[in-house]
């Protein structure tokens, strides 16, 4: 049986038996295609469909963002058994009980940063590394922080495999920011916070923008864009109502007050500390020692993001 490579994914699923999918995420349970190698599946075609139907059709118009979403191999940032579901219009599970946001959400957040290309960007909450890779296609350097050690390691591996040399990941409490690399022209906070951390505001350059979900309710937050103006003043814009995973850290949620147990909280409980003290800067490729920190240098064959000439 030949694997179809140039049809709509939803149409294909319906044609072979509907929504009762097996472990590959596409074929119905027990379908013969579970025994077929999917290695040649046309992911490039799925990326095109994702950009057109899930992102552009919903109003994202920044050509830099559309181009970046069309380039990054999303299938490289999900668990192997979910690769054929990588371009689905839904969140996907990743390690440590966390989820991987649907494509449109990531595109929406990055568009809200209003990047022009070549910026230094900080990401708080790296997850699988996919949003960092999309940003690396646009920005000059991307510094991403993740307080779950396993996720930091996995994201670094994904970025290495995909060839992103201008992405740097640190295992640390992201709510404190990355002071050694500050200031940043853009900051993307992927997790909800009860209030905007002063440490992150102080690391934003004049004219820089921060996108952060804020709210006292862990179940729903307001997506806020904060722009730093002259003399340290900030312009606050409420962008949208959204729901995000609450981070645990010095300036994040200290405990699960609503009974919504999260694996992030459990991970921190294992360490016996609310803000992980270990700092692991993962830069991808060969291991080196620097001031007692474990680092990974960037992979050869840079896939560095370059400023685009399209509209912003």
List keywords for this structure.
globular, single chain, 8 helices, disordered N terminus, eight-stranded mixed beta sheet, two-stranded antiparallel sheet, 312 residues, 12 strands, alpha/beta, disordered C terminus, 24% helix
How would you sum up this structure, described in words?
The protein is globular and about 55 Å long. The chain is of the alpha/beta class and 312 residues long. Helix 2 runs antiparallel to helix 3 and helix 2 packs across helix 4. Helix content is 24%, strand content 21%. The N terminus and C terminus are likely disordered. The chain is built from eight helices and twelve strands. Strand 8 and strand 9 form a beta hairpin. The relative contact order is 0.13. The longest helix has 14 residues. The strands form three sheets. Strands 9-8-7-6-3-4-5-10 form an eight-stranded mixed β-sheet. The protein starts with 8 loop residues before the first helix and ends in a 16-residue tail after the last strand.
Short précis:
With 312 residues, the chain is α/β, with parallel strands linked by helices. The chain has helices at 9-15, 43-55, 63-71, 103-112, 130-138, 149-162, 198-202, 263-271; strands spanning 92-93, 99-100, 120-124, 141-146, 167-171, 184-189, 204-214, 221-228, 234-242, 280-282, 287-290, 293-296.
């Amino acid at each position: 049986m030949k694997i179809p490579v140039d049809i709509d994914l939803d149409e294909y699923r319906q044609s072979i038996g509907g929504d009762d999918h097996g472990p590959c995420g596409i074929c119905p349970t027990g379908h013969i295609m579970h025994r077929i190698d999917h290695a040649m599946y046309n992911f490039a075609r799925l990326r095109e469909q994702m950009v057109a139907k899930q992102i552009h059709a919903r109003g994202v118009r920044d050509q830099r963002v559309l181009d970046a979403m069309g380039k990054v191999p999303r299938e490289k940032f999900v668990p192997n058994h979910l690769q054929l579901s990588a371009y689905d219009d839904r969140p996907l599970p990743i390690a440590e009980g966390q989820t991987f946001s649907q494509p449109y959400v990531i595109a929406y957040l990055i568009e809200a940063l209003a990047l022009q290309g070549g910026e230094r960007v900080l990401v708080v909450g790296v997850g699988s590394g996919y949003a960092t890779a999309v940003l690396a296609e646009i920005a000059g350097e991307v510094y991403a922080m993740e307080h779950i050690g396993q996720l930091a390691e996995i994201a670094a591996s994904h970025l290495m495999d995909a060839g992103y040399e201008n992405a740097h990941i640190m295992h640390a409490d992201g709510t404190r920011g990355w002071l050694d690399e500050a200031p940043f022209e853009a900051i993307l906070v992927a997790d909800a916070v009860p209030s905007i951390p002063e440490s992150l505001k102080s690391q934003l350059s004049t004219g820089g923008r921060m996108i952060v979900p804020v709210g006292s309710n862990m179940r729903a937050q307001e997506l806020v864009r904060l722009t730093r103006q002259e003399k340290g003043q900030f312009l606050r814009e409420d962008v949208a109502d959204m729901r995000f995973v609450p981070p645990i850290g010095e300036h994040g949620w200290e405990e699960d007050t609503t009974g919504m147990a999260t694996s992030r909280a459990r991970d921190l409980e294992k360490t016996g500390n609310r803000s992980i003290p270990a700092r692991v800067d993962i830069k991808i490729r060969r291991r080196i020692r620097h001031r007692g920190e474990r680092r990974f240098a960037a992979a050869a064959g840079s896939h560095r993001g370059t400023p685009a000439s399209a509209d912003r």
